[in-house]
Amino acid sequence: MESMADDLAAVAAGFGAVLRRAGLPVGPGRSERFAAAVTLVRPVTAPELLNCALATLVSSKDQADVLRAVFADVFGQSPDGPSRATNGPDPAERPQSQDLTDAATAARMHASVVTAIREAGSAAADDSGDADDPEISRPYLGSPLERLSGTDFADLSDEELAELAVLMSRLTLAVPPRRSRRHRPGPGGRHTDMRASLREARRTGGDVFRLIGRVPLTRPRRLVVLCDISGSMEPYARAMIQLLYCAAGGARAEVFSFATRLTRLTPALARSSPTAALREAGQAAPDWLGGTRLGVALREFNDSYGRRGLARGAVVLIISDGWDTGDPALVEREMERLSLVAYRIVWVNPRTKSAAYEPLAGGMAAAWPHCDAVVSGHTVKALAQLSAALADPVRRRAEIRPAA
């Protein structure tokens, strides 16, 4: 029986591989159901085995036609034949000796089928270079979310981006803590908390046997986000705004968008779902899909919000590809102003996903020396680098890489 199980596993896996080469979405789940159906039905003829395959490996009439053609090529028999109802009594009515005979026959048939499948698979691999039909060059057997997590945000549809909200909600955009001016009672403080020490002395009749110190409180820094919503950044802007809705709630993020003007999106993100948040953000920003005036947007932020203390000691996250229609000198001057008050500046540029990327665009080249970290953030898997860059407590300025 163990050899029968091994033959059955080889048949299910090999047959599924041949079907995948033919363009059918047959993954491990369907192959496992096919093997379970063969174990339950115990087919002894080709039509019975075909019925098991049709019940477990396909989900539409078009896929069934492809399966019948592949079945005929692999097993060398026509799928047309007598139905199972006219091929003897039901397995439940067969005696036990007949079941054992059928199992042995099925095992022998499976062993012969393995050789046929391997030969068919080898022939399909040899003819793949000359075939005109489309084939799956890199079959992916993971779950849909795992496949989407490695897909560039620019290649995702609105429905697929909505599905990634589950993975984005598992991320945490944590920022480094800051030392507060407030204190709390605690051991090891440089100053004595007299009120807490006298309160403790009431338990010993007014005699102070233990001095309680005062230690400073720590609070998370503010997260300020400036997101480019111009035409070249539109797919990444949708993904980043959804990420901020799903993962940045605990960081008290202040979100702004800019293309030709600066717009505050924090009230729009206070919605019940990512879809509603994206819709409200699109309605709140009148310059969505417009041009990019990076220097003007940074100047407006510094004048209207930065000097009022919103960016003081905060972690500033800028999401842009660095393309600017204005003067790069303005970008450099405003980035320098921002770096004097911000604790860290993290830049997300999807173009840096390429190893050959160089900051040659005027806006990016002017802003690069004032950034503590530059990451790509073009997929869900790449967002781990973004989380690490935001949580890094060390201030550092990246150097401009020399051009080729």
Quick structural overview:
By secondary structure, this protein is α/β, with parallel strands linked by helices.
Give the distance, in angstroms, between the N- and C-terminal Cα atoms.
65 Å
Q: How can the largest sheet be summarized?
A: 6 strands, mixed
Radius of gyration: 32 Å
- By CATH reckoning, the class of the largest domain would read Alpha Beta
Class from helix and strand fractions: alpha/beta
What CATH architecture label of the largest domain applies? 3-Layer(aba) Sandwich
Stretches where pLDDT is under 50 for at least 5 consecutive residues are 81-108, 128-141, 399-404
Order of helices and strands: HHHHHHHHEEHEEHEEHHEHEHEH
| Mass-distribution shape | flat
Would you give the CATH topology of the largest domain?
Answer: Rossmann fold
Residues in helices, as a percent range: 40-55%
What is the residue-averaged pLDDT? 77
Oligomer: single chain
Full CATH superfamily name of the largest domain: von Willebrand factor, type A domain
Q: Beta-strand percentage? A: 5-15%
Number of domains: 3
Counted by DSSP, the helix tally is: 15
- Trace the largest sheet across and list its strands: 6-5-4-7-8-9
Give the topology.
Layout: H1 2-21, H2 28-41, H3 46-56, H4 61-75, H5 96-126, H6 144-149, H7 158-163, H8 165-168, E1 177-186, E2 191-192, H9 194-201, E3 213-220, E4 223-228, H10 234-247, E5 254-258, E6 262-264, H11 274-284, H12 294-306, E7 315-319, H13 328-341, E8 344-348, H14 362-367, E9 373-375, H15 383-391
Helix pairs in contact: 1-2, 1-5, 2-3, 3-4, 10-11, 12-13
Overview of this protein structure:
The radius of gyration is 32 Å and the shape is flat. It has 15 helices and nine strands. The chain has a six-stranded mixed β-sheet. Strands 1-3-2 form a three-stranded antiparallel β-sheet. It has 404 residues and is α/β, with parallel strands linked by helices. Helix 13 links the parallel strand 7 (315-319) and strand 8 (344-348). It has helices spanning 2-21, 28-41, 46-56, 61-75, 96-126, 144-149, 158-163, 165-168, 194-201, 234-247, 274-284, 294-306, 328-341, 362-367, 383-391, and strands at residues 177-186, 191-192, 213-220, 223-228, 254-258, 262-264, 315-319, 344-348, 373-375. 34% of the residues are buried. Helix 1 (2-21) packs across helix 2 and helix 2 (28-41) packs across helix 3.
